[in-house]
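INFO  loader      accepted 1 record
INFO  loader      residues=246
INFO  predictor   begin
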Amino acid sequence: MKSFKTALSILTTIPASLSSAPNEKTLKKSVYFFPLCGYIIALFSVISIMLISQIFEIDIMVQAIAIVTLLFLFSGGIHLDGLADSCDAMFCQTDRDNRIRILHDSRLGSFGTIGLVIILLAKTIAIYVLLKNSNYLLIASAVVMARLQVIFIVYYGKYFPYDKGMGKEIIGKIPIITVFVTVLYSLPCFIFSIHAIIVTVIIALIVFFIYKKCCLKLGGISGDILGAVIELSETLALILLTVHII
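INFO  predictor   done
INFO  writer      dumping tokens
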């Protein structure tokens, strides 16, 4: 139960009531629950809007904005923060040490601002397109798939040479059984559309490419990169899921 609460505290703003700071063993086990947190976020952010729309007549664009807002609120914006920091670090023209320093700088730079604007606009538009065909469940599946993608990079990734951050306790340290179990209980996301399987594979390849770029420029990945991967995976999944609908 503590592992589940730890996962909730890492990936959501839902009160977890942790009695003490999690140790390395608990953090590793918490990874099992990352996609489950995706299900919970999808329930409150997407399914709730679907149910409300059955009672009240709400414009599709308003629904799309509401879903994006709820995704932000239930994740606490921590993934967007990681995305912004990652954009600042990865796109600046400097050496590795400065990139790592920028990654952990709380100030928002120009690349981070541009990245946030693009992601939020792309996510809102993609959700709007999906809602035109009432594809609420596909949107929900994208939320879960994004949390599944981070399992893969945590499994094969390596933490960059930096002595701070929770990421160092889990990156490159989870067993293959964690990947198997999380994939297994994420399978319901694929029953809504066979296209979702293709999308997941494509995104997994893109995430691997991003990982290689991070290794080249940073020497590895960190918790901020994991947050960025979740945001990018979620947005890419939403965009790719619209391809066969347009």
